[in-house]
Amino acid sequence: MLSVADLHTYYGESHVLQGVTLSVEKGTITAVLGRNGVGKTTLCRSLVGLTPARAGRVVFNGVDITQLAPHRIHALGVSLVPQGRRIFSSLTVRENLAIAVRVGQDGWDLEKVYAVFPRLAERGHHRGNELSGGEQQMLAIARALVARPLLLVMDEPTEGLAPVLVAEVARLMRRLKEEGTSILLAEQNAAFAVTVADHVHVMSKGRVAHSMDPAALWENEDIKTHLLGVPPSAAGDMI
């Protein structure tokens, strides 16, 4: 479904992505893990056209989207849940969702989203800046879903969330996968990612350093401690 080949992305003269190669198979959850600053967010931004790559290639469902504008990539079926939520703080919950809705026969509509996130239905008339951090994250995910994506790109969706909400995000991701939505998850929380992902890529210094099965990753103490910052005392801890 998604193929990324030798991707190079810069901010000015700063060479952030230095030849990233990976793929996301249809109907799977692929996680990209790594410490802060290794390029995970830049990768997400490059995939959706917000920070286009200078070299390399991104192909989605057979279409080269490397240099396409963000709105054209979105129209092809790629939705982003950005790091930091990025909701419209001056708009209500309903208005945030209304501007993102894509009409269609299949996929997520407002009714389905409200069934999954009843709190958003309750807070429908509240502005974005009146929501808690957890509610804002729910809204960011719901906003991406009502666009009926084929591929959902999620950038640090568990950041700042309480454990109970992290578990809710995990359940939602598994449901999306079961219903046919493919997911690329960029995440620092390795313990969370390995519970939901079918395949993981570990980034270091702008490159993919390792690609493996989630269970194999969690058994590899060297990668966990040196590249992911998981303390040795957490060897068996998974959420």
Folded structure, characterized:
With 239 residues, the chain is of the alpha/beta class. It has two domains: 1-76 and 151-161 and 182-239, 3-Layer(aba) Sandwich (Rossmann fold), CATH 3.40.50; 78-148, no CATH class. The protein contains ten helices and ten strands. Strands 6-7-8-3-9-10 form a six-stranded mixed sheet, sandwiched between helices. A four-stranded antiparallel sheet has the order 2-1-4-5, with helices on one face. The longest helix is centred in the C-terminal third of the chain and has 16 residues, at 163-178. The radius of gyration is 17 Å and the shape is globular.
Q: Would you count the extended β strands for me?
A: 10
Main sheet: strand order: 6-7-8-3-9-10
Radius of gyration: 17 Å
- Overall outline: globular
Under the CATH scheme, the architecture of the largest domain is 3-Layer(aba) Sandwich
* Terminal-residue CA separation: 29 Å
The H-level CATH homologous superfamily of the largest domain, spelled out, is: P-loop containing nucleotide triphosphate hydrolases
* Structural class by secondary-structure content: alpha/beta
* Proportion in β-strands: 25-35%
CATH hierarchy class name of the largest domain: Alpha Beta
CATH topology of the largest domain: Rossmann fold
Helix content: 25-40%
**Number of domain units:** 2
Helix/strand order, N-terminal first: EEEHEEHEHHHHEHEHEEHH
Q: What is the tally of helical segments?
A: 10
Averaged pLDDT: 90
The poorly predicted ranges are none
Tell me the major beta sheet. Answer: 6 strands, mixed
